[in-house]
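ok here's ATPase:
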Amino acid sequence: MRRYVLTGAPGAGKTSILRLLEATGHSTVGEAATAVIASGQARGEAEPWTRASFIDDVVALQRRRQTQAVAAATTVQIYDRSPICTHALGVYLGYPVSSALSAEIDRITRERIYERQVFFVRNLGFCEPTAARRISFEDSLKFERVHEESYRAFGYELIDIPVGAPADRMAAVRSTISRPAR
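and the structure:
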């Protein structure tokens, strides 16, 4: 199983690319942090990311989704973010690396869960706020740099997905995932 990750700044277009990949028959796994935020907000929490257990909740959902996705009969999967993104999120928010996050990063490294090539989706030059995404464009650029630093620190190779039409960005991802495994 080859598992690829899409990462980048909030609002960069990762989910749009993921949806296009899914529409063309690829196996995809959605972003966990947004789901954890939406769930918390549905329960009346205005800012779930301020909860002490937030990072661990994201890690748990990422692991659950990854292990459930293994059952899918496919050779390639594309993930909207990974535990390395959760590491970047924790660093950005100023949280210490929890034992759950550390253990999950150890597991994905030891088991080689994700391909070492990660698709870094570049920002679009703006960041539209949503209920789950309350970040200015300037702060999203800082967050983008933290993502780059986290992935590089853990030894991943970033494949740049430049600004462009969603279909062109999806085609750039497809050209890499369609190559034979190294």
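+1. The two ends are 12 Å apart (CA to CA).
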